[in-house]
Specification:
The protein is built from 12 helices and 7 strands. The N terminus is likely disordered. The structure holds magnesium ion.
């Protein structure tokens, strides 16, 4: 009990609430964004291109080889441009409900952008999308195990929020990820940036938005989605696509310092 607050006349419960609020603010204030923010208690991560790198089956050569089986002649040199064009034109479900066909259409656009503008493009896309559900087609980036362990060492809760069709709990087990919750859009029903998928993770972790950080590689889904709820968000820009984004991280190794954790 803090004596001066104990005599304040607010009664026991309000006094405890005031002390807790005071401790949260005074122990963890971060002034970097111009206003006080409580110490972070939880970190949410996107999965693809944030923690996990898709294997060759889901890259330029993988598309080309699979295209051959569907009678398509795909130019692997056109993959990057085709993928960026597909991202730019990606049509989310209007209510941000999870819809497997969105991902098939996205992938088909890449296939066609690589020169596969013929019959067989849809079936090729369906087969490629199925790879995204296979956990062994992905590897964790080198910085992931170390950073997750460091965050755990500071007592932080950790969670995943991922758009996609995979069984996210199975993915967590396969890659031995030490996290407290995993919210996948197929199981949950909504995709990022819908606020409910972020709220679901906050509820599972029993934390408030203002004491949570989100890390991801998609500006629209991860960064804008999180910030809309008051979650501080860090864009992970491994490929240097957003040089002007304030607070961008080039590697997860920069995250503990960005969070203001003691000792960094
Ligand atoms: Mg991602």
């Amino acid at each position: 009990m803090t004596p001066w607050l104990g005599r304040s006349g607010f009664g026991e419960a309000p006094t405890i609430a005031i002390v807790r609020a005071f401790r949260r603010i005074s122990a963890g204030v971060r002034m970097g964004q111009g206003y006080p923010r409580p110490m972070v208690r939880a970190v949410l991560f996107d999965v693809d291109f944030t923690l996990a790198l898709p294997g060759p089956e889901l890259g330029a050569e993988g598309y080309r080889k699979l295209g051959e089986r569907h009678g398509l002649s795909l130019d692997s040199a056109r993959y990057d441009v085709a993928r960026q064009a597909a991202i730019a034109s990606l049509q989310h479900h209007p209510e941000l409900e999870h819809d497997d066909e969105v991902w098939v259409a996205f992938t088909e656009r890449i296939v066609r952008g690589m020169g596969g503008d013929a019959a067989g493009a849809y079936e090729c896309a369906v087969e490629i999308v199925a790879f995204w559900e296979q956990h062994d087609k992905f590897t964790l980036y080198d910085d992931v195990p170390r950073v997750l362990e460091e965050l755990r060492g500071h007592g932080l809760k950790l969670g995943l929020i991922s758009n996609g069709s995979r069984d996210l709990d199975g993915f967590v087990r396969h890659h031995a990820l030490d996290v407290d919750c995993a919210v996948g859009s197929r199981a949950f029903g909504r995709t990022k940036p819908h606020p409910d998928i972020f709220r679901r993770a906050l509820t599972l972790l029993e934390v408030e938005a203002e004491e949570t950080a989100m890390v991801g590689d998609s500006y629209e889904d991860d960064i804008e989605g999180a910030r809309a709820l008051g979650i501080q968000a860090f864009l992970l820009d491994r490929d240097g696509r957003y040089p002007d984004e304030p607070g961008r991280l080039e590697t997860l190794l920069a995250l503990p310092a960005a969070l203001g954790l003691p000792g960094y």
